[in-house]
Amino acid sequence: MKIICLVKFTPDIENFIYDYEKNVLVRENTRMVINPDDACALALALKYKSKHPETVVEVVTMAPLSILPHVQDLIRRDVDSAAVISDKLYVGSDTYVTSKILAKYLMNQTFDLILTGTHAIDGDTSHVPSQIGERLDIDQLSNIIRVDEQLLSLTSATVDVDAEHSISTYEIELPAILSLQKESKYKLPYVKYVDIEKDVSDRIQIIDNAMLGFDQSEVGIDGSLTKVSRTYVKKMSKNDRVIVKNDEAGIETVYAFLKEKGFV
Amino acid sequence: MTNEKLLKLLSEMLEDNQINTSEEELYDAAADRYKKYAKARKVLDVPSPVAIVYPKNTEEVSKLLKFCNENQVNVIPRGGKTATEGGLENWKAMTIVIDALHLDKILKIDPYNMQATTEAGVELQRLEDELRKIGYTTGHSPQSKPVAKMGGLVATRSIGQFSTLYGGIEDLVVGLECVFPDGHISRIKNVSRRAGGPDIRHIAIGNEGSLCYITEVTVKIFKFYPENHKFYGYLIKDIETGIKVLREVMVGGYRPSVARTYSEEDARQHFYHFYKGKCVLIFMAEGNKNLVEATCKGIEEAAEEFKDGILEYVDSKLIEEWFNNLNWSQQDIDDEFAGMLENDSHSGFTTEISADWETIPKIYHNAINRIRDEFPRAHELTMLGGHSSHSYINGTNMYFVYNYEINCAPEDELRIYHHPLQTIIVEETLKLGGSMCHHHGIGKYRNEWTKEEHGTAFYMLEKLKEAFDPNGIMNFGTIFPQEEGLKYQK
Hints:
The complex is a heterodimer of chains A (264) and B (490). Chain A is 25% helix and 25% strand. By secondary structure, chain A is α/β, with parallel strands linked by helices. Chain A has one domain: Rossmann fold (3-Layer(aba) Sandwich), CATH 3.40.50. In chain A, strands 11-10-9-12-8-1-6-7-13 form a nine-stranded mixed sheet, sandwiched between helices. Chain A has a two-stranded antiparallel ribbon with strand order 2-5. A two-stranded antiparallel sheet of chain A has the order 3-4. In chain A, a hairpin with a 4-residue loop joins β3 and β4. The N and C termini of chain A lie far apart (44 Å). By secondary structure, chain B is an alpha+beta fold. Among the domains of chain B are: 3-101, 2-Layer Sandwich (Uridine Diphospho-n-acetylenolpyruvylglucosamine Reductase, domain 2), CATH 3.30.43; 106-223, Uridine Diphospho-n-acetylenolpyruvylglucosamine Reductase, domain 3 (2-Layer Sandwich), CATH 3.30.465; 226-324, Alpha-Beta Plaits, CATH 3.30.70. In chain B, the strands form four sheets. In chain B, strands 12, 13, 14, 15, 16, 17, 18 and 19 form an eight-stranded antiparallel sheet that branches. A five-stranded antiparallel sheet of chain B has the order 5-6-10-8-9. A four-stranded mixed sheet of chain B has the order 1-2-4-3, sandwiched between helices. In chain B, α10 crosses α12 (289-305) and α15 runs antiparallel to α16. Chain B starts with a helix and ends with a helix. Classes of the chains: A alpha/beta (264), B alpha+beta (490). At the A-B interface, loops of A face loops of B.
């Protein structure tokens, strides 16, 4: 089975420092990380590969070349190859154009299954997977929290989908695009100590516009029809800190808090 | 020799219930708390010993050591299993662990001569409890007190939290009994002082099981006056201020039982309820009333001397409460173990070094800065700081404390995180003439620097090993570097 994993690298916003006085995110020294939902998708592919060694896993990402060390890090986790779609013409592409670019690359690839994330932590529109599915004329399903590995075959997959108040199980014909949520909790394997410095450059292909052949007007800011009317930084409030003693009153306070929050 | 043959020969020397071959317990005996995470995740890369044996007396220890010496069987002496530096880790296939489980008698408590004698396997807590019943204390209180045993404490040059008053274990040991690989039993008598040549107690104290097996120890005891305990706490400008106040107290000749200063980061994990983002300085005075009064005066005068760096006084009750909950029990160790099974985390690591007063702040800052600049996974550190907790007239220690998100396979954790961090701290310490280990011992993972630690005096250490353990059967790899062990280190 050939699995292509679409991944995105995003700023590590979960570990941002927030300046509560100025109400802004402190962006200095921000690290890039693999988008958590995408990481789960790739983790599932690698888990499947570990049990079915004939499986081939390819990572596809559209990103500036500065993320190459992160892609190398993924290869060292037993990904077979990676395609990094990168061209200065693509800078500023909206989700529609991004989908167009990714789909054009994927049209010329062979695959049995595409795995990706549902949400991106730096955008959250969730447009891209479904738009790619449309362009490739294959089915796409979001909010997946489990893929039944026993039932996964070249022709179909059985998946559990988080439908907010219930979990629905679907069988879907392959090839298709399955978008996972981080709640699936598939966990990326670690790079082994002996592989930390391993040269994997020969397994990464850089795909630029010379290979995809878009006209300048079709991509980047020129090709993006999305108009952003306003952006804002989500306001965050600092939680009050309550320190209690390890005594009856303290235990009661903690219990009341957990109860209020619905944990007990 | 095959394992079966070894077990057969052991069974000719001991009763069946003195030989443990439980697979689970042999796995546990293969490593100590240095590899706690890998051990919990069942990915240890070192061999399990062939057996754990439990001698009942010194003669049986002697017989076992002689047998191992003649048959090239590696021996790991074991007490309370609280080692943190790999001292109990096994690097040889043909190994037995000699556990002090049955050497468990308190032999004599002698309040008139102010000393107590125990066998090696007596828990420090048990001795302390017995002494408290009659108003005395050992004065020795490492965090591992509820679990650690007397033989192990002496073998690793342990230190307690009240060492600034009572001294380290080397100041407390009056005499001892130990057994060498050839089976010879040496007894060092209990006297108040001696000038009969070099002080041979120190061949056994701190040998970490690499020269001999300690079977019995006699330690000093002290009168205990809990009603006189006094506590002091201060929020201070920086760690330098803390070190200056500590020095002032010490060079003034005062001996508080506790004298500590914490960096902001370390203070956060100990004193989160009052530290307010600042460094912390604490003292405890104990002993007879007159002594406590004088010590308190000395502490107050020193704090006054450096008042520009003191930001706030802390309620002494908060310090007292903290002390009363400082030790970790077997339950704490078990809880950490259970946590490591479920989460990619543990309670962190430490590296403890020492140096003179003027050097210690330099080592602290050099090491911290180098870690932040050079450690490739500095962004994964969740805690990096330190404290000084044991002071002397000429200097103090620094206890570097760090923790991190573990983003690697459990078997790689030490190579990726702890060892590179420890390497930076040790290198910066040795560069400025400090000692790379203040009280945890060398174990197996700091042995690469043993020669540098001792310099030209390593000659003396090497000769001791050659003389007492010519066949190299005592705790292979501990203190003394071994090429065969490199595969576990690098």
